[in-house]
Design a protein that fits this description.
By secondary structure, this protein is of the alpha/beta class. Strand 6 and strand 7 form a beta hairpin. 31% of the residues are buried. The model has no long low-confidence stretch (mean pLDDT 98). The structure holds S-adenosylmethionine. S-adenosylmethionine binds next to helix 4.
């Protein structure tokens, strides 16, 4: 599975602990470094990489992903625009945790949305 904008990467850590083959990504080097250290300290096996949504070659190389996860990504309109272009090309099941950011409404209107847990949406 793939996580976009992973930050501290808790979904990736949880998925890896349950046996998933995980690539966690973020454009912030500090976040990726911390996630690698955190995973190693807790003996969690995952891959973590610096990837920007506007330079997604590494993401396309792994497509189609079985599952694509994202949490709290829609805090700027440019993020919504980038993800609208990117997500359809990644394949698989898209699960987005969205806490109610102002740019979420217009973004979600582009998808067939199913709320699978509180503020967690499956996008098709
Ligand atoms: C609000 S944080 C959420 C972090 C984490 N998913 C969470 O829920 O705690 C958004 C994350 O998206 C990353 N991000 C924002 N724009 C990005 C882009 N264009 N490419 C890659 N990552 C990006 C940020 O660096 C940040 O870690």
């Amino acid at each position: 599975m793939l996580e976009l904008g992973a930050g501290l990467g808790l979904p990736s850590l949880a998925a890896a602990l349950r046996g998933a083959d995980v690539l966690a990504t973020d454009w912030a080097e500090d976040a990726v470094t911390l996630l690698r250290v955190n995973a190693a300290r807790n003996r969690v096996e995952l891959r973590a990489a610096c990837v920007r949504w506007d330079e997604p070659e590494q993401l396309y190389a792994g497509a189609p992903w079985d599952v694509v996860l994202g949490a709290d990504l829609l805090y700027e309109q440019r993020n919504a625009d980038a993800l609208l272009a990117l997500l359809p090309r990644l394949g698989g099941e898209i699960l987005l945790a969205e806490p109610g950011r102002p740019f979420a409404g217009r973004f979600l209107a582009h998808w067939d949305v199913e709320e699978v847990a509180e503020r967690v949406y499956r996008l098709r």
